[in-house]
Amino acid sequence: MAHSGRRIVVALTALLTVAAGLPCTPASAAPPSTAVPARAGAPDPERWSVDLAVAGGDDVNVAWRSGRLRLADPRPTARTRPAAVGGPVAEGILLSAPRTLDRPATRVRARLAARTGDGGTAVAQVRGWRSRGWTEWRDAEAVFDEPVRRVQARVVLTTRDAASEATVTGLTLAADSAATTAVQPAAPLTYRVYATRIGLVGGTTANGHTVRARDHFAALPSRRGLSPRGTGDYTVKVCTTSGSRCEYAPVWDVGPWNTRDDWWNPSSIRENWKDLPRGLPEAQAAYQNGYNGGRDQFGRTVRNPAGLDLADGTFWDGLRLTDNAWVDVTLLWTGGGARAVVGSGPLNLRAGAGTSYASRGLAATYAQVPVQCYVTGQRIAGTYRTTTRWYRLVGGTYVSYAYLSSIYGGTVSRC
User: Fold this and answer.
1) With CB atoms 3.0 to 4.6 Å apart as the test, which of 141, 152, 364, 410 could cross-link to 338 if both were Cys?
2) CATH at 361
3) Could you tell me if 245 and 318 lie in one domain?
4) Tens of pLDDT along 272-286?
């Protein structure tokens, strides 16, 4: 929820039902802030304050000064804005340490103390860990459906110009239980969308990554699926429409065109454009059908139907595209099953369990790839181990275990 007009924002309440997780080091105490009141008759919620001190690492363009979290560099430049934004906008993200709860919870309430004005915004968002990975980031309207033992928060600040204000003095979270109905994970969602090439070598993505030549990552037009820097928490599988080439790539930027268009979600939780069919990006509707007067959320005339951006290496080397094109994109965090984390890439996706088999695409470093089973194949001395084990991925390609840093989300048996 963005706030404008020069005023104090005393509460931003998020009702979040999240998923069961793994233990992690609790976040340290933050500057004092007002506690969140418990519901009458309900057990006392577990409360904690988010540490707003900036430690670097996953934090992007934010600083803690004089008791306030603010942008470290509030000047709108190409290096401090997501690629999708039409006008200059400075942006920063504070990512808290994950918090391990004392008892399982299905709801988290966030209370944000912030001051914004003249186009500045301050947003608090929360996600939860389940066995198949992190839920999407959610703010005040979000509801999930499984218990959680681990929670992480982030604060997003933006300013439009030097006169804008966006500062935060405290963020308090409270976790408790509410009645939910668990939903069994289905196969991950796949849609055909138009993809464009990001370029922007030397620029900075929304998660703070500096774009390199022939880089490997993707961008979606919503922060709900934005991975922290150096992770593939939200990974997409992007394939040519013929299926001849695919790449698994982490989502590290926000765009194209919009920044609040999670077009893969149903209208009940979609951030904007709730009247559009699920799976239809707003930019595509604007370009093809004149939706929203043919404009994006910033009022720009939409000049292509893109719902996905691809870094140059993903575009040229992974898919071997020569121009913007329609692709099939699978949002892997929307499904279940065992996942392997690519620790050293880009890694070839082989047609069989050996390097003599043809490459069918790539898996980027940090990508989380869906694993079906394993076979014995060519011995490989890789980054993590020397092994004859190869994993078959959903879709029938193979990767060597020698380059996989970890596997989670289920038991993997022999094929």
Assistant:
1) 410
2) 2.30.30
3) yes
4) 999 999 999 999 999
